[in-house]
Structure formats: structure tokens, C-alpha cells
Design goal:
- This protein is an alpha/beta fold.
- 31% of the residues lie in helices and 21% in strands.
- It contains ten helices and 17 strands.
- The strands form four sheets. Strands 7-11-6-1-4-5-12 form a seven-stranded parallel sheet, sandwiched between helices.
- β13, α7 and β14 form a beta-alpha-beta unit.
- α3 packs across α4.
- The longest helix has 18 residues.
- It is globular, with a radius of gyration of 23 Å.
């Protein structure tokens, strides 16, 4: 569109979330981003809008976005949008953005989102911050975040007062955290790591009053340069850390016998009905697969019970698990930072403590 200028920032308003769907069902990441987008929209005093692309998506799924915070949902229904294609989705989203000019666009950092986000940003001549783990527009809230997750002397640091989106993401392999802003272009775009943002409780009243805008999609086969011939699903056993109720994680403390340490963690996880996680150190050492990693460069988890075996508690790891309901830490070092966020701390050798915990859990279950 000839009247679209990404530098005319005063013309842009509202927060948008691309709500990914597969086979007509919205992803859990979409609900997480709608919940987070609601907070940003409240801070800015603007509307929160969901964007759904697909074919014959049920109205109940679209309205459900209002139950998690959306004021309005743009629904782009077209047979060529049934299956994801980079060309088709990019064109439709960019046409919509150019026509309505949102100031913020959030996309899940899924396989689709990581492909779609950069394409849209390039076409819209704006910036994109990838794989974000925290978002803020309010400076005071951002400063409060820094106080708990960084070593910056926040009280003696000068911060510019503005409502630019502050997009925080891991950098240098997770050893540093970078906050990036896009002050000169709009929309401000971010892909957000799945599982990081918490989904707010569902509100039936919000769903009932959701405004659905059916978009007149301008899309032709000539706009898409690939044909989706078939969609095949590969069955692969994955570790569901994000959805787990109990996570038992191992850290560098298993270094003297990694195989045994992981086995002890698995035994305890089995007894508690949970899964095994790990710190980055274990993954880097090759002791456990990366799919088990918890932290800023791994997965962010919110289980009912989180057990940390031999994990010192670096900032990067704590950021990925500190919101767990109950944290039990086992470490030989009484001064380990993990004890700062632990609900219960045990100073001792994990090779002795873990089997005792496992037996205690089994005995308790047997007694019931």
C-alpha cells in the first residue's frame, strides 16, 4: 500500500497477536501471547487484537481468544490458508498490518513463527527481536524486572521514559540477556518463546463479547510459490517439560557419575509422576539431550513441584523455573544461589539424598 510508512510511528496503535492454528485448533502458545498482550495493551491503554489465519476455523475457538483477553479478532478465512505457506501467510498478514497499523505485533517462536516473523518484518521495513523471554512497555515494570533478574544497579541507572516495547532475549549463548527496542519503526515485532508467558484464567464473559472481524482476504494461487502436497506427522517421543506437573532437574552436581545421577533423577521423577529436566551445564557436557533443558536458553516451566538436584542456580536457570509452586533444592554448597528461590532446601550429597526422597515418596504412596 502506497500510504504505508513504517517510520510514521504516531499513526500506529494497538497490540496484535498472531494466533497460530493447526488443523483448525489454536495453539497453546497463542493463548499465552494473548494473555501477555493483554498486559501490554492495558499499560498502553489500547485494544488487543488477535489475528487468525486458516480455513473453516470454528467460531468457538476464535471467540475463546476473547476469554483470554482479546478485544477483537481478525479472522482471515481462505482455502489457501488451510495449510501454512510462507508466501500466503506473509502476504495476508502484511496486507492487514498495512491497512490497520498496529504498534506491536507478537508471534510465537514456533517453527511457523520463526519462519513467518522475519518475512513479515522485512516486507514491512521494520525490526524484529527473536526468541524473547520477557516484554515490557512500562518503564517502572521493566525496572522491577531487572531488579530480580540482573546485576544492574537499577536505582542508580538512568532510564529514558518512553513506551517503546522492551524486548528481552538471551544473547551470547545464554550467558547474557539483551533488551532490544525498535524506536524508529513500527510495528514493533517480536517472536516469543513458547511456555515463557503464563496463560491467564479463562473469562466466559470476555469470550461472549469478542468482536470478530471477517477479513476480505485478497489471495490467489499466483501469490504462493509452493504447493503443499501432503502433511505427514512423525511420531516422536518428546519430553513435555512445559506441561509437566512435576519436574526433577539435574545440574553440574552429577559430574562425578552423570549416568547414575540422571538415573536417580528419573527414579524420583517416576515416583512423583513427573519428568526429568536439566541445567544447561548438563546439556553442554553431553550428559543429557537438549530437550530436557530448563532455563532462558531452554524451556520455561511452571510445575507444581520442581526438584533441583545438584543445580547451583545461575540467573539463567532460575529465570526458567523460579515461578514453580514448590521448589525443592538439593546441593552440597549451603551458599548456592538456588536456595534463594527454594521453598525447601537440603544441604547434602544428591547421590544420598535423591534415593531417600524416592523411597519416602514410595512409602507415602504405599501407606495411602
Amino acid at each position: 500500500m502506497t500510504n504505508f510508512d513504517s517510520t510514521a510511528i504516531a499513526e500506529f496503535k494497538n497490540v496484535w497477536v498472531f494466533c497460530e492454528q493447526r488443523e483448525g485448533k489454536l495453539s497453546s502458545t497463542a493463548l499465552e501471547l494473548i494473555s501477555e498482550g493483554r498486559k501490554l495493551a492495558n499499560d498502553l491503554g489500547v485494544e488487543l487484537c488477535g489475528v487468525v489465519l486458516g480455513s473453516n476455523v470454528k467460531e468457538e475457538y476464535i471467540k475463546a481468544l476473547g476469554g483470554y483477553g482479546a478485544d477483537k479478532v481478525y479472522y482471515c478465512d481462505h482455502e489457501l490458508l488451510k495449510d501454512y505457506t510462507t508466501d500466503g501467510y506473509t502476504k495476508v498478514i502484511c496486507d492487514l498490518v498495512e491497512a490497520n497499523k498496529p504498534e506491536i505485533v507478537l508471534i510465537g517462536a514456533t517453527n511457523i513463527g520463526r519462519d513467518l516473523g522475519p518475512r513479515c518484518a522485512a516486507r514491512l521495513h521494520t525490526g524484529l527481536t527473536a526468541d524473547c523471554t520477557h516484554l515490557d512497555v512500562d518503564v517502572e515494570k521493566y525496572k522491577a524486572f531487572l531488579k530480580t533478574t540482573s546485576t544492574i544497579d537499577v536505582d542508580n541507572t538512568k532510564f529514558e521514559e518512553n513506551t517503546n516495547l522492551k524486548m528481552t532475549r538471551p544473547a551470547f549463548g545464554g550467558h547474557l540477556m539483551a533488551t532490544i527496542i525498535c524506536p524508529r519503526f513500527r510495528p514493533q515485532m517480536s517472536t516469543v518463546r513458547p511456555g515463557v508467558m503464563q496463560t491467564q484464567p479463562y473469562d466466559e464473559a470476555g469470550a461472549a463479547k469478542t468482536e470478530i472481524v471477517n477479513v476480505d482476504v485478497k489471495l490467489d494461487k499466483s501469490d504462493i510459490h509452493v504447493d503443499v502436497l501432503e502433511v505427514k506427522k512423525a511420531a516422536k517421543k518428546l519430553v513435555d517439560l512445559i506441561g509437566a506437573d512435576v519436574v526433577v532437574s539435574v545440574g553440574r552436581g552429577i559430574s562425578k557419575d552423570p549416568e547414575k545421577g540422571i538415573a536417580l533423577a528419573q527414579d524420583l521423577a517416576n515416583a512423583l509422576g513427573g519428568v526429568v529436566g536439566s541445567s544447561r551445564a548438563c546439556v553442554d557436557a553431553g550428559w543429557i539431550d537438549a530437550s530436557h533443558q530448563v532455563g532462558q536458553t531452554g524451556k520455561t516451566v511452571h510445575p507444581r513441584i520442581y526438584v533441583a538436584l545438584g543445580i547451583s542456580g545461575a540467573i539463567q536457570h532460575k529465570a526458567g523455573m523460579q515461578d514453580s509452586e514448590c521448589i525443592i533444592a538439593v546441593n552440597k554448597n549451603a551458599d548456592a544461589p538456588i536456595f534463594e528461590v527454594a521453598s525447601y532446601g537440603i544441604v547434602g550429597d544428591l547421590y544420598k539424598v535423591a534415593p531417600m526422597l524416592t523411597e519416602a515418596v514410595k512409602a507415602l504412596k504405599a501407606s495411602k
